[in-house]
Amino acid sequence: ELWIAGRPVATAEKLVSRNPSRSSEIVGTHSKATAELAHAAVEDAYAFFSEWSAYSAADRSIVLFRAAEILRTRRFELDAWLVMEAGKSWAEAEADTGEAIDFCEYYARQMLRLDHPEALLQMPGEKDVLRYIGLGVGVVIPPWNFPLAILVGTTVAALVTGNTVVLKPSSETPIIAAKFVEVLFEAGLPARALNLCVGSGSEVGDTLVSHPKTRFISFTGSREVGLHINELAAKPQPGLRWIRRVVAEMGGKDAILVDEEADLNAAVEGVALSAFGFQGQKCSACSRLIVLNTIHDRFVKRLVEAAGAWLLGPAENPAFTMGAVADETARQKIGSYIAIGKKEGELLFASSVPEMEGYWVPLTIFGGIRPEHRLAQEEIFGPLLAVMRATDFDQAIQWANSTRYALTGGLFSRSPDNIELARSEFRVGNLYINRTITGAMVSRQPFGGAAMSGVGTKAGGPDYLRHFMDPRVVTENTLRRGFAPKTGAEEHQPKK
Ligand code: NAP
Ligand code: MG
């Protein structure tokens, strides 16, 4: 069921969610919103905004702390939904649920901190106060690939800052979304503060984004959709009383550099996990591997051997290291890039795929890729790795920076000079040195990209909540009314 204007709403048209590893298995069905329902959701969220934003920061934060508690107790159940609906391995599912819990805890604490901002400079006879206040109605649009963590993080960040929310989850993962909405209501969130508007992006997405009462959009997903939303949100229209704010976290074409000085054992393992974990379906996944010429052949041979040890099969069986991709569209898209790769480069490795139903694609490695190739420029979102041979470290850095994306990047090296060079010249939002480039942790690695990868100030970081608030300053002339500033002494005088 949808949640619109504080009430559950069932519609005739349903969205069917399937298990990627066994496509005939229906994980759940969910009511699908229409454009009219989406419109009604924004209207009611707007009407309820003054009430929800009047809750104290502490009262809003408590909802998040309780939600974290409930998530902890339902952890394994949620893991299971992630395995079944998104095709995550158990380990990846645990990480997803864990991150969701962290987001609740972290943003609740951050909100308490922001409720007492640093004091402004005070002069006698004047009182200056800075406060952060919520913006209004936020439309939250997360992707399917972290169907719990990103959905939870973006939703609770908008809520705890005093906004009312219309959540439009991905059509791939409506069941997990509905589970979390359950959790929030159980945690004490007033039902009118959050609308659950499951529906297709093209049908209800545009309605939500372009509604004149929508104040901001918090989007995470592909560059194409992010740019579309940004454009639509900026369009002036009758009745619009503000410039909508857009926070858009988008794709990546993330590179790992392997230097001559690298520890090759660590590099093989780090590259394989970064490239093929969760079938390469992470915005942070390694999709370009840039190896220095002198060690290229030795390293690639070992990487191919390591890749051969990855077993493909249904995600729910822990014996398998790689599962199926999200849906049939993803399967075909990745297939078309494999065909392109065969023309642009040399196929170094392709795993076999299970002979069973499900959206299977081979784990694939191409060599001989150059910066101008499509395999080096376009986000593919699958277990497909493009290997590039660089003549020296400067060229490697130059190639690493040669896409319009700037999300994550990695370096394996034992040379302090090259590590220093990468620190200053490798332009990405999150750079990882001598480790995997996926799996950012809340408050340890605030996460997000620059350039065409995003416009935000990093999820799970200290600046994130400010996206969803306006700072307001009140200056009061306290002399005008004949008062002297309080010294504190008068408070100790006996009351008359
Ligand atoms: P997507 O196709 O762009 O979809 C993201 C969300 O946008 C979904 O909820 C989708 O709904 C919705 N949507 C589609 N068209 C819309 C429209 N016209 N108006 C409003 N909403 C619309 O991305 P995805 O396939 O779910 O996720 C993969 C992408 O996300 C990759 O590019 C990945 O790199 C990126 N990503 C980035 C980050 C980051 O933090 N930077 C994190 C995770 C993923 P439907 O499902 O109904 O179409
Ligand atoms: Mg599905």
Arithmetic mean of pLDDT = 95
Parts with pLDDT < 50 across at least 5 consecutive residues: none
* Largest pleated sheet: 7 strands, mixed
What structural category do the secondary elements indicate? alpha/beta
Describe this structure in words.
With 496 residues, the protein is an alpha/beta fold. It contains 13 helices and 20 strands. The protein has helices at residues 35-53, 57-73, 75-86, 90-114, 149-160, 174-186, 201-210, 223-234, 264-276, 293-308, 328-344, 393-400, 416-425, and strands at residues 2-4, 7-9, 14-19, 22-31, 126-134, 137-141, 164-167, 194-196, 214-220, 245-249, 254-258, 286-292, 346-350, 364-367, 384-390, 405-406, 408-412, 430-433, 450-451, 469-477. It is globular, with a radius of gyration of 25 Å. The termini are far apart. 50% of the residues are buried. The mean pLDDT is 95. Bound molecules: NADP nicotinamide-adenine-dinucleotide phosphate and magnesium ion. Magnesium ion (MG) binds next to strand 3.
Write a brief caption for the model.
By secondary structure, the chain is of the alpha/beta class.
What brief labels describe this structure?
binds NADP nicotinamide-adenine-dinucleotide phosphate; alpha/beta; binds magnesium ion; globular; 7-stranded mixed β-sheet; 496 residues
Secondary-structure map:
Blueprint lengths: L1 E3 L2 E3 L4 E6 L2 E10 L3 H19 L3 H17 L1 H12 L3 H25 L11 E9 L2 E5 L7 H12 L3 E4 L6 H13 L7 E3 L4 H10 L3 E7 L2 H12 L10 E5 L4 E5 L5 H13 L9 E7 H16 L19 H17 L1 E5 L13 E4 L16 E7 L2 H8 L4 E2 L1 E5 L3 H10 L4 E4 L16 E2 L17 E9 L19
Parallel strand pairs: 6-7, 6-9, 7-8, 9-10, 11-12, 11-17, 12-15, 14-15, 17-18
Antiparallel strand pairs: 1-2, 3-4, 5-20, 13-14, 16-19
Helix pairs in contact: 1-7, 2-4, 2-6, 3-4, 4-5, 9-10
The site of magnesium ion (MG) has 5 residues, from strand 3.
